[in-house]
Amino acid sequence: MTKDELIEAIASHCDSKKQASEVVNAVLDAITKALSKGDKVALTGFGVFSISNRAARTGVNPRTGEKIKIAATKVPKFKAGKALKDAVK
Potential cystine with 10: which of 4, 20, 29, 88 (Cβ 3.0-4.6 Å)? Predict the structure, then answer.
C-alpha cells in the first residue's frame, strides 16, 4: 500500500480526500519529529517506532575489494505489537 492508497482508504472515513491527506501527513510529521528528538513512539496494539544506533564498522567496496570505514549512524526501527502480529498471521 502506498501513501496515496492509504489516503484513499482513510478518505472513506473523512469528509474529503484533502482532510484525509492532512491527517496522514500530520501523523507522519509527528512521528518523524518525535524520532528526530530521540523519543519513542508507541502505538498500543500496533507497534513501537524508535531510534537504533549503528556502530562504526569496516566494510569492503565490492568493485575494488578495498576496505572502507563506515561511520556510526542512527537509524529508525519499528517493532510490531502483538495485535498487529496476530492480524498478519
Answer: 20
